[in-house]
Amino acid sequence: MPSTIRKESGRTRSASLPDPDKTRKSFTWKDAERLLDSLPGGGLNIAFEAVDRHVRAGYGGQTAIRWLGKGDAREEITYADLAARTSRFANLLMAHGLERGDSVFALMGRVPDLYVAALGTLKAGLVFTPLFSAFGPEPIRTRMEIGAAKVLVTTEALYRRKIAAWRDEIATLKLVLIVGEAAPEGCVVLGPAMAAASPEFEVAQTQPEDRALIHFTSGTTGKPKGAVHVHEAVVYHAISGRYALELVPGRVYWCTADPGWVTGTSYGIISPLVNRVTMIVDEAEFDLERWYETIKREKVEVWYSAPTAIRMMMRAGAEAAAPYDFSSLRFLASVGEPLNPEAVVWSNKVFGMPFHDNWWQTETGGIMIANLAAEDVHPGSMGKPMPGITAGILKRTESGVEELDTGQIGELALRPGWPSMMRTYLHEQARYEKCFVGGWYLTGDLAMRDPGGRFWFVGRADDLIKTSGHLVGPFEVESALIEHEAVAEAGVIGVPDETAGEVIKAYVTLTPGFEPCEELERAIRGHTRKTLGPAVAPREIVFRNTLPKTRSGKIMRRLLKARELGLPEGDISTLESDET
Ligand code: ATP
Ligand code: MG
Predict the structure, then answer these.
(1) pTM, two decimal places
(2) Is the CB–ligand 1 distance for residue 265 below 6 Å?
(3) Does the C-beta of 261 come closer than 6 Å to ligand 1?
(4) 20-449 has which fold?
(5) pLDDT at 577 over 80
(6) Res 580: pLDDT
(7) Tens digit of pLDDT for each residue in 367-386?
(8) Which of the ligands is closest to the CA of residue 262?
(9) Hey, which bits of 461-498 come out as E strands?
């Protein structure tokens, strides 16, 4: 296990939360509300908190979004611009007779109009759902059906390729807004319609419990669920961004997640703007040199990314990072998948500070467990519960649940009551209710708490492997595998076996310069036997060019397993690469 990364006292003092344990004890939700204004005349509205109130307070001239287009295009959007554009969008929705609670879907890449549509929808009191532009027609259609879409905002190309053929079959759909020059029949071009709309709009008097966002989960374990979130979530977005991501007004912040999944909205739109930072939005996909160059050129201070990207950086080596100046960086964070200890140690070496892992889900709406700036980092740990959050490790029993002691593996659970918790799964109330047992919300993830109160991720409950009497989480085995210099990424599953119950099988991708061969397989297996012991080391290792992943960057172990066993693949609507 790599050693603890200690924080210097200077860094601890300048953290947003200099003494986290003290705050954990004294925290009340009133402390979070202090970061917000409420709507003039009462009520609470995410878009007002994110945009308009900053303009009222005199910050209209600050850049809210610095957009970097795929080529060299750039656009600076100030808070005042964003207020005006979102008002125009809200007016446009009203002019088409849309009403409070109606559902607006967006399907497009990371372009400014996506951000305008999200916030304009919320301003008007409608409900916003972002979709990945790379989804195929079927996943788009089913989600629009489940969400009873009334409006779709998309581009001409995406419309023609993915929507036109079935558009008329979505009975609820009233309006299709097209980003671009020309609109296909039955659609409205957004640009001129926005220009004709007024830049003044009185923000809808939404109440904290009014619906604001519907996010579909990543589909890692099965069919995606539609998690319903309300305007009150902004209370948590504000405080968690400040405490867990160091989002301080005026800072330059880059969240690399796409708004098509919850991180890209909670921490890629709402939390940063509520905390009045300047957000970098990069339209392009991952490209190592472009990313390093962006940090240097834009003087990024806070960077929120994901293990899959960090592993790609590692794969390219420290040499690839050496020519760049990273002195602007002050805080790095990661979410979405377990962050291997190796990646934490590597980032500390290359960037002069570690990536801080944090844990949450679409359902929780915000970061629940985190490594905070003032705290030492124990590589491999997700950190401690955020102020206001109580987490426990539970065992399900016949009569309910039982809390487990430190050091024991069980299901990660949270005490309900924080503002950004989902309010239901869309049209699946019974499934939602099943998540709550004995006063806890059960997350479906397995974890362990150490004596210091830190939480360690073990695996998804569905991914747990039972081999020769041992319970093994794939994360542990994957982390041991990527410690080997030849291994870039690993996905581990259990394969049924007569004597052992299950045996461990690993799928790995290789670092450039290594070729698949028997000798290498033996060497990697030897390494895992040494670090994990023979019972937990993979019995078999197979080499792959890529691993199947969701569009939010998660390894789909259930798909590796289904393919291994020749079982039905299940819902693969969020699958990104498909070479396995
Ligand atoms: P579905 O619920 O449809 O299977 P999903 O759970 O992948 O999809 P998300 O809500 O996007 O959908 O992902 C949340 C899950 O991601 C968590 O429950 C956890 O399994 C995993 N996760 C997120 N952050 C971390 C982390 N820091 N360490 C380990 N796992 C994480
Ligand atoms: Mg999930």
Answers:
(1) 0.95
(2) no
(3) yes
(4) Rossmann fold (3.40.50)
(5) no
(6) 45
(7) 999 999 999 999 999 999 99
(8) 1
(9) 465-467, 470-472, 487-497
For the CA of 261, the nearest ligand: 1
Whether the CB-CB separation of 351 and 291 falls below 8 Å is answered with: no
Pocket test for ligand 1, best of 216, 217, 310, 561 (most atoms within 8 A of CB): 217
554 touches ligand 1 (CB under 6 Å): yes
Q: Which of 143, 220, 572, 575 to mutate to test the pocket of ligand 1 (most atoms within 8 A of CB)?
A: 220
Instruction: Determine the pLDDT at residue 446.
Output: 96
User: What is the DSSP secondary structure assignment for residue 421, as one 8-state letter?
Assistant: S
Q: What is the pLDDT of residues 292-324, one digit of tens each?
A: 999 999 999 999 999 999 999 999 999 999 999
- Return the residue whose CA atom lies nearest to atom 11 of ligand 1: 218
E strands, 79-221, are 103-107, 127-131, 149-155, 175-179, 188-189, 211-216
% of the chain residues with pLDDT over 70: 99
396 CA to centre of ligand 2 in angstroms: 18
Statement: 462-577 belongs to CATH 3.30.70.3420: no
Q: List pLDDT tens digits, range 93-142.
A: 999 999 999 999 999 999 999 999 999 999 999 999 999 998 999 999 99
Could you tell me the sign of the dihedral formed by the alpha carbons of 293, 296, 299, 302, in that order? positive
Q: Is 210 in the pocket of ligand 1 (CB under 6 A)?
A: no
Contact 306/555 with Cβ under 8 angstroms?
Answer: no
Q: How far, CA to CA in Å, does 555 sit from each of 211, 234, 567?
A: 31, 30, 18
CATH 3.30.300.30 domain extents, the chain: 462-577
